[in-house]
Amino acid sequence: MDIISEKLKLLPESPGVYIMLDGYKNIIYVGKARVLKNRVRQYFHNTSKPEKVMKMVENIRDFNYIITNSEIDALALENNLIKKYKPKYNILLKDDKTYPYIKADMREKFPNFYITRKIKKDGCRYFGPFMGGINCKDILDTLQLTFCVRLCHTKITGKKRECLNYHIGRCTAPCAGRVNAEAYAAQVKKALSFLDGNYKEAEELLKSKMTSAAENENFELALDYKNKLAMLSKLEAKRITSLNRYIDADIIAYATNNLYSAVNILVTRKGIMQGGTSFALDEAHLNDGEALTGFIIQYYSQHELPSEIICEEFCEKELLQNYFREKFNKTVEITLAKQGDKARLLKMAKQNAEDYLEKSVDKIKHKDDMTVNACKRLQELLGLERYPRRMECYDISNISGVDKVGSMVVFIDGEADRSSYRRFKIKTVEGANDFASLQEVLTRRLQKLGSAEEDKFPKPDLIIIDGGRGQLSAVKEIFDGMGVRGIELVSLAKREEEVFTLNSEESIKISHRDYSLKMLQRIRDEAHRFAITYFRNLHSKRNLQSVLTEIDGIGKVRRMSLLEKFGTLDKIISASVEDLAAVDGISRAQAEKIKLYLEENL
């Protein structure tokens, strides 16, 4: 603490970001401050603090800081550093917690509509997010059925053949020049109005089409229209009648028991409750306002900003508004609701957050046993020099030496960090030689240490190999040859679930009920799953390419188009002639030839 005491005296009275480090120089917390001197000193004062903060302070052995021009810049830098280093005591939102949107590509002369989970500043329009039991595909299907807009990504040249959707009345076929830009723009306008929550015209059109289909004895199509009308009724039922019809707002409430916290978000679009979701937080913020602000910044780095956010009064309103304006060039109204409909919505979100917190505490504690506590236990059982915060596990997959691949999966504090997973094609090994393949993969991985790419491939604390003593020895040769230091190395053998280390000739057997072994099994099984999935994809595509080369007139460009469209041989075999002819560059005659060849030869 002598280092810390000296550094505390030198802190500037400037805005910036502070970075807390443990005894191994791992970043365990990142925070922003309006005045670095005041904020950082708060952690080390003998004053009452939340329990989680006290636990963090016990682990701090040093800190660094970065001065910024403003608190807004500090907020942006804090968010970037949290994403990069994933500190143990910060709020960490997983990338896979995104929801589907419907995207209208307004950059096109003939806009298309499709589902996406990524929001970009690209001039397109996004509708959603869709949650709470609303099926995005059903809405898209209704959109096409009612307004005949296109859902494909086909380039519009006016020279293509009409696909099946044109013939069954689901698309006006701009790709074949069957509709002009003005008429199609009218279709798009109605579709956009529908996505904005104006369902009346869609209901009338669907009823008219249902009646017409029934009169023509096309009962299957009539039933389809009837089902779509039922879905619209379900959507309309989600409208909150007491709300202003045009309210676009996310309602965010925070609850805490001073050890764990929870946030609930309710989403309303055009006065319709789209749904809601809750997050369990495990953070070490000094106050609730800082915790809520940190959550909001991370959440909206992955989700579309609404025009309004309704939240509690301890939210850092002005800071967030200025941040959104500078970062996203968007004005977002932050409403600290105290009365009226918005206050009632906030109360509803608060109740959901409190309920989730109460019912998830045991789950969170159990999660700690399965993750952080399991890491501590593993350090103790295996005699590791340091806490294994970042663990990487490697596996090899092939059949008879064909399509050899390797996988690297990453766990941080005992949890999978899927954004850091990597796959390797084995390039230098002949035949089925798992030892040599492991050596190639580890060589390529360890070459990243000390290079310009180390930010993307941080140094792990522990490397786990799927295998026994032989695999461990093969990787140790790479460690020795490259002079690698400061990384622990173990292997896990499947048969008896024995752990082999470099510290002992004898294997270590951990109880099958021990959370630390269960964690090792999770990371090992995940590495195997990731490797085998990559192998199957490569193997399937290689087989698919070899089959397609045997069909006259199907060259490399057309083979690639088929691969991109269908992905696997099974999907091409099951595709209809119309589906095949809808692929770029494939005429109907060629589609018929492909179908005939596959039926006769496979």
Task: Please give a structural write-up.
- The chain has helices at residues 2-9, 36-44, 51-59, 71-85, 136-147, 164-167, 181-195, 200-215, 219-237, 288-299, 317-328, 340-370, 372-382, 434-446, 469-482, 515-548, 556-566, 569-574, 577-581, 588-601, and strands at 16-21, 27-33, 62-67, 101-104, 113-116, 125-127, 249-256, 261-269, 272-281, 308-311, 333-335, 390-399, 402-412, 415-416, 422-425, 462-466, 488-493, 498-501, 508-509.
- It is α+β, with helices and mostly antiparallel strands.
- Helix 13 crosses helix 16 (515-548).
- The longest helix has 34 residues, at 515-548.
- The mean pLDDT is 84.
- Contiguous low-pLDDT stretches (5 residues minimum) are none
Profile the largest sheet. 8 strands, mixed
Strand content: 15-25%
Mean of residue pLDDT? 84
Count of distinct strands: 19
CA gyration radius, whole angstroms: 29 Å
Please describe the structure with a list of short key phrases separated by commas or semicolons.
single chain; 602 residues; alpha+beta; five-stranded mixed sheet; 20 helices
Topology:
Elements: H1 2-9, E1 16-21, E2 27-33, H2 36-44, H3 51-59, E3 62-67, H4 71-85, E4 101-104, E5 113-116, E6 125-127, H5 136-147, H6 164-167, H7 181-195, H8 200-215, H9 219-237, E7 249-256, E8 261-269, E9 272-281, H10 288-299, E10 308-311, H11 317-328, E11 333-335, H12 340-370, H13 372-382, E12 390-399, E13 402-412, E14 415-416, E15 422-425, H14 434-446, E16 462-466, H15 469-482, E17 488-493, E18 498-501, E19 508-509, H16 515-548, H17 556-566, H18 569-574, H19 577-581, H20 588-601
Parallel strand pairs: 7-10, 10-11, 12-16, 16-17
Antiparallel strand pairs: 1-2, 1-3, 4-5, 4-6, 7-8, 8-9, 12-13, 13-14, 13-15, 17-18, 18-19
Helix pairs in contact: 4-11, 8-9, 12-13, 13-16, 14-15
